[in-house]
Fold this sequence. Notes:
Order of helices and strands: HHHHH
Largest sheet: none
Bound molecules: fe (ii) ion
Number of strands: 0
Structural class: mainly alpha
Number of helices: 5
Radius of gyration: 17 Å
Distance between the termini: 19 Å
Amino acid sequence: MVKQKIQDEVNDQIQAEFHSAYIYLGFSAWFESKNLDGFAHWMKMQWEEEIEHGMKFYNHLLRRGANVKLKTLEAPDVSLNSPKEAFERALEHEQYISRRIHKLYSLAQEEEDYPLQTLLHWFIDEQVEEEEVTGNILERLKMIEGDNSALLDLDRELGQRQDEGNEENGNE
Ligand SMILES: [Fe+2]
Ligand SMILES: [Fe+2]
């Protein structure tokens, strides 16, 4: 039995993860329109990852006999002025998601929901990685500002991002 309060918060988190996906897909389209296909590819992989995150929470609720309640997705603001701005906003967004995950973890502790705590351990680690990776790319973009050939090098590099693979072999 999953407490109603927990179900509500997890359903909000599903929405937040799918909204994250939507933002990254929007950014991907922006990069593609600027002919920065490597960045576009990186953003699209990020979109896929966020869908997987949403599905982890979705499956968690269903496996425990709780209700999944899908919510409206707001259109993402993808009016960008530069690649740097995309990563500034991605980092801010990931920091916001980390705060949400931490709050959810506190709630799971208060409500003594141990299965959710276990699931959230994975997300807490994942957010450290998300912030690290996004922050590193942002730092590089700051360093190469105005240097188009360095930007194209980075574009090529990001275009090589591989699917990290789902450790759980599909949907878990
Ligand atoms: Fe996520
Ligand atoms: Fe993320």
